Amino acid sequence: MKKQLMLLGCAMGLLLFPATAESEKSTVLHDQMEAMNDAFKAFRRETDPVKGAAQAREAQVATIKSAAEVPELVKAMPEGPEKAKAQVEYRKMMAKLLVALCEVEEAFLNGKVEDVAKIVDTLKEMKKAGHDKFMEEDE
């Protein structure tokens, strides 16, 4: 009986191990980028100015938190001037993103929901450029 309980305990431990390993891949930066993406998906289709402005603010908060982090690709770089330049470039891109998200909020607050679509196109381009520069390609 004791052996069966021990085997059952080991089996349960093995089942839980992949879930634990998966959660370790989640970083503060990843979590904030997910929050930003969720808010982006919500406000790009929003027609209610009040809700849209609130969603834009959610994305702004996630952007500010993300700007304080360092992408894994940059962390992996050897210490030196190139790494420092990459960190600065990342923060500059995040700052530009924050400004664009403020423009989204402003458009909603001014009742110009149609202007949001134009800004969303810019945000898509910014997202692609940032991901191309600071994310490793999945193989």
Here the CATH topology equals Four Helix Bundle (Hemerythrin (Met), subunit A)
Low-confidence stretches: 5-24
Strand content: under 5%
CATH architecture grouping? Up-down Bundle
C-alpha termini separation: 46 Å
Going by CATH, the homologous superfamily would be Cytochrome c/b562
Q: What is the count of β-strands?
A: 0
What percent of the residues sit in helical stretches (DSSP H or I)?
A: over 70%
DSSP helix count?
A: 6
**What is the number of independent domains?**
1
Largest sheet: none
Q: What is the mean predicted local confidence, pLDDT? A: 83
Give the H and E element order.
HHHHHH
Radius of gyration: 20 Å
What distinguishing features does this structure have?
139 residues, mainly alpha, Four Helix Bundle (Hemerythrin (Met), subunit A)
Describe this structure in words.
The chain has 139 residues and is an all-alpha fold. It has a single domain (24-134), classed as Cytochrome c/b562 (Four Helix Bundle (Hemerythrin (Met), subunit A)), CATH 1.20.120.10. The protein is 82% helix and 0% strand. It contains six helices and no strands. The chain is elongated, with a radius of gyration of 20 Å. 19% of the residues are buried.
